[in-house]
């Protein structure tokens, strides 16, 4: 009961505090929350949604989705096939180490200003935590269930599906969570550096033209977008990892 | 082991050779992707230039200081939160609200408040790199194998002993992964700050090269940034391996 109350009360308190503290503000860079919200309503509520919000979110989802598929698939494959792992290792290692924003100028030069460039950059950045965590998750497993499976003659694919994947799932999800924030960050960066539309572009342009309330409205939108994505992710994760959470919680409660 | 090295080197050489052929044959315009040999030559030249090393130093300081702050804060707060169900329950919502806000959204704000120097970079790096460490610390502490906790209770270990001997060692692999991820995020944000804001560092050098059409230099710098990232990753992995020598995941790798 207390937890519920806290969960609702704390955020409301924070927002109220912000409102109160900034209400009489004459500081150009930190306008009153009320002004920001008004600008937010004017800008984002439906006027700019198709031109900026939709492309941004589309790129983000495309990039993230691709990263997840490639990351988990490749992670499982590499872990289970040592030869391929050895072949791919130096390349993966190196590509992984290049900070994705550093790839934006070359991507710009080669791929131009389109959406493909941004999705490409997002994938190149968001892929690695998923890949890493999948490999780690498969590697750190308790060997006993696997040996039991071998003893019972349970074959390759089923072994992966029923033992390897579920056991690695918590760590894979941790990786997916990190990747989500990286994908969001890269979406914003690529729009700031290499785009003519999108939320990121809007925020930077507003700052450069000193349209400060618009800038804050954009920041607010990005924050809300991040929160929304995070909530959706949390709901999905809770559903998929239900059995795991239950086991851990029962042990802790005892 | 030797065979793995061989396979790895071979694949890299093959890719480089293919690239060289494709670019020299004019299939891809040299203005888009210059031949690897040109890029390497330019890289060699850069190694002797003072500006290059100064840029490297700037990027490294942004990364290093930011990561250090994030790790200390992240582990301390994360372990504390993971241990206390009530604290976690209470603070979870604010954390969930703050965490997803992409740090880059704050770039314009950073510029306004901190200008275009190292402080802006640090602000962004710490804000972004904190979360993987924090989250993984929390996950790690909460994800202790229940059997081991039961054993601890059976043996009559005090809560503090349980923490030191069961919970923390069990959480360390998670934390290590978190630190490793935080390290690359820190580098990403440091380079980003340099790219977007123009703080001194490799990111800024890359943008300058791109803007003036010096494609060879641009690719050489990107490569150098990759090498930097690689070196930092390798460093962290070595530290991690030493700290986790006893853990099953490391044992299996040695098998």
The largest β sheet of chain B comes out as:
none
Percent in helix of chain A:
over 70%
Largest sheet of chain A: none
Largest interface: A-B, 78 and 88 residues
Uncertain segments of chain A of ≥5 residues (pLDDT<50)?
A: none
Q: Rough shape of chain B? A: globular
> What's the gyration radius of chain A in Å?
22 Å
User: Total number of β-strand segments of chain A?
Assistant: 0
Structural class of chain A: mainly alpha
On the 0-100 scale, what is the average pLDDT of chain B?
82
Assembly type: heterodimer
Distance between the termini of chain A: 21 Å
Mean pLDDT figure of chain A:
79
**What is the radius of gyration of chain B computed over CA atoms, rounded to a whole number of angstroms?**
23 Å
Judged by helices, strands and strand pairing, the structural class of chain B is mainly alpha
Strand content of chain B: under 5%
Total of helices of chain A: 11
Q: Would you kindly provide a written description of the structure presented here, covering whatever features stand out?
A:
The complex is a heterodimer of chains A (254) and B (255). Helices cover 83% and strands 0% of the residues of chain A. Chain A is an all-alpha fold and 254 residues long. The two termini of chain A are 21 Å apart. Chain B is 82% helix and 0% strand. Chain B is built from eleven helices and no strands. Chain B is globular. At the A-B interface, helix 1, helix 4, helix 5, helix 6 and helix 8 of A face helix 1, helix 4, helix 5, helix 6 and helix 7 of B.
Index terms:
heterodimer; A: 254 residues; B: mainly alpha
Describe the secondary-structure layout.
The complex is a heterodimer of chains A (about 250) and B (about 260).
Chain A: H1 2-22, H2 33-44, H3 49-80, H4 82-97, H5 104-111, H6 115-139, H7 143-151, H8 156-193, H9 199-208, H10 212-240, H11 242-253
Helix pairs in contact in A: 2-10, 3-4, 3-6, 3-8, 5-6, 6-8, 8-9, 8-10, 9-10
Chain B: H1 2-24, H2 36-47, H3 50-83, H4 85-98, H5 107-114, H6 118-142, H7 146-154, H8 159-197, H9 202-211, H10 215-243, H11 248-254
């Amino acid at each position: 009961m207390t937890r519920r109350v806290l969960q609702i009360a704390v955020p409301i308190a924070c927002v109220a505090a912000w409102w109160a503290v900034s209400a009489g503000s004459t500081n150009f860079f930190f306008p009153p929350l009320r002004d920001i919200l008004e600008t937010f309503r004017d800008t984002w509520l439906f006027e700019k949604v198709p031109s900026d919000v939709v492309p941004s979110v589309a790129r983000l989802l495309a990039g993230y989705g691709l990263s997840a598929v490639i990351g988990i698939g490749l992670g499982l494959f590499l872990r289970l096939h040592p030869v391929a792992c050895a072949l791919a290792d130096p390349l993966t290692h190196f590509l992984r180490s290049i900070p994705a924003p550093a790839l934006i100028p070359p991507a710009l030069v080669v791929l131009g200003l389109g959406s493909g460039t941004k999705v490409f950059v997002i994938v190149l950045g968001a892929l690695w935590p998923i890949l890493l965590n999948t490999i780690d998750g498969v590697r750190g497993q308790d060997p006993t269930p696997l040996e039991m499976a071998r003893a019972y003659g349970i074959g390759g694919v089923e072994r992966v599906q029923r033992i390897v994947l579920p056991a690695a799932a918590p760590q894979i999800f941790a990786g997916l969570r990190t990747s989500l924030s990286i994908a969001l960050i890269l979406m914003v960066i690529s729009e700031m550096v290499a785009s003519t539309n999108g939320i990121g572009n809007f925020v930077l342009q507003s700052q450069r033209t000193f349209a400060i309330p618009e800038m804050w409205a954009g920041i607010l939108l990005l924050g809300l977008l991040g929160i929304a994505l995070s909530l959706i992710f949390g709901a999905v994760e809770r559903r998929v990892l239900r059995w795991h959470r239950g086991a851990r919680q029962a042990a802790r409660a005892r | 082991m030797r065979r793995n090295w061989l396979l790895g080197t071979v694949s890299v050489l093959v890719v480089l050779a293919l690239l060289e052929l494709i670019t020299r044959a004019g299939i891809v315009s040299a203005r888009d992707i210059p031949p690897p040999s040109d890029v390497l030559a330019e890289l060699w030249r850069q190694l002797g230039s003072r500006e290059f090393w100064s840029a490297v130093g700037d990027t490294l300081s942004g990364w290093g200081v930011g990561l250090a702050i994030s790790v200390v804060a992240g582990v301390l707060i994360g372990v504390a939160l993971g241990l206390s169900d009530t604290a976690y329950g209470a603070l979870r919502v604010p954390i969930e609200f703050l965490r997803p806000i992409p740090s880059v959204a704050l770039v314009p704000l950073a510029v306004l408040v901190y200008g275009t120097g190292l402080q802006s970079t640090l602000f962004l790096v710490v804000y972004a790199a904190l979360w993987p460490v924090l989250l993984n610390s929390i996950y790690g502490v909460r994800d202790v194998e229940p059997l081991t906790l039961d054993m601890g209770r059976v043996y009559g270990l005090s809560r503090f002993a349980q923490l030191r001997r069961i919970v923390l060692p069990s959480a360390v692999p998670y934390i290590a992964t978190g630190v490793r991820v935080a390290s690359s995020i820190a580098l990403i944000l440091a380079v980003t700050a340099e790219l977007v804001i123009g703080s001194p560092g490799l990111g800024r050098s890359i943008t300058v090269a791109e803007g003036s059409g010096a494609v060879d230099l641009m690719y050489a710098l990107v490569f150098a940034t990759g090498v930097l990232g690689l070196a930092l990753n390798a460093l962290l992995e070595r530290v991690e391996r030493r700290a986790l020598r006893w853990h099953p995941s490391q044992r299996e790798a040695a098998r």
